[in-house]
């Protein structure tokens, strides 16, 4: 098994490509080891000292590290953990896998606008941020403000504010006049 690695715009995050499907549908975000219980692979990766976050996309695993650990020391152990997991035959996720879009539900008078926002996110934004090892999902819409949840390499990335303001906000405002601003939300 050959696992490729790619850097991301976030220096604290690396993208690992195992050459096979990681998530059949949707994504899975493990911002702490405490929430990794339903994923044997995430648990294995969190066993590597210095790992602070794990994110699964369709064909990649994104790993975030703490500031005090160097990639040179961590990367071989992470590659080993991913390889061991795939060789073990264990599932990526146990129990019911959440195959939702990752977007929050929204009911009410703005549902048509929210549908347009989600469609633009799915067709224009999410494929681009997946290339960088992350994901951005809809969290809410209130009085012209779109709230988005940043995951994987996007969470804590120094350039995420620029991506939100200059990229996503401009895109949404162009196509949906009711949108006035885009803001990130915490976990």
UniProtKB/TrEMBL annotation:
Entries under SUPFAM superfamilies matching the protein: Fe-S cluster assembly (FSCA) domain-like, Hypothetical protein SAV1430
SMART domains (UniProt xref): Nfu_N (SM00932)
GO biological process, any: iron-sulfur cluster assembly
GO-annotated molecular function: iron ion binding; iron-sulfur cluster binding
Pfam family, one: Nfu_N
Domain Scaffold protein Nfu/NifU N-terminal, chain residue ranges per copy: 3-89
Family: Belongs to the NifU family.
Protein name per Swiss-Prot or TrEMBL: NifU family protein
């Amino acid at each position: 098994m050959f696992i490729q690695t790619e850097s991301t715009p976030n220096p604290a995050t690396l993208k690992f490509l195992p050459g096979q499907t990681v998530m059949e549908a949707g994504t899975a975000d493990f911002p702490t080891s405490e929430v990794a219980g339903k994923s044997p692979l995430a648990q294995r990766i969190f066993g590597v000292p210095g790992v602070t976050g794990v994110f699964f996309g369709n064909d990649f695993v994104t790993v975030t590290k703490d500031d005090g650990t160097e990639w040179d020391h961590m990367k071989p152990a992470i590659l080993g953990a991913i390889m061991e997991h795939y060789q073990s035959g264990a599932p990526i996720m146990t129990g019911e896998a959440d195959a939702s879009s990752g977007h929050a539900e929204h009911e009410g008078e703005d549902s048509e606008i929210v549908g347009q926002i989600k469609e633009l996110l799915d067709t224009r934004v999410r494929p681009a941020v997946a290339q960088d090892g992350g994901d951005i999902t809809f969290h809410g819409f209130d009085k012209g403000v779109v709230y988005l949840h940043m995951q994987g390499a996007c969470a804590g990335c120094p350039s995420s504010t620029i991506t939100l303001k200059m990229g996503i906000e401009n895109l949404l405002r162009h196509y949906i006049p009711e949108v006035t601003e885009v803001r990130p939300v915490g976990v």
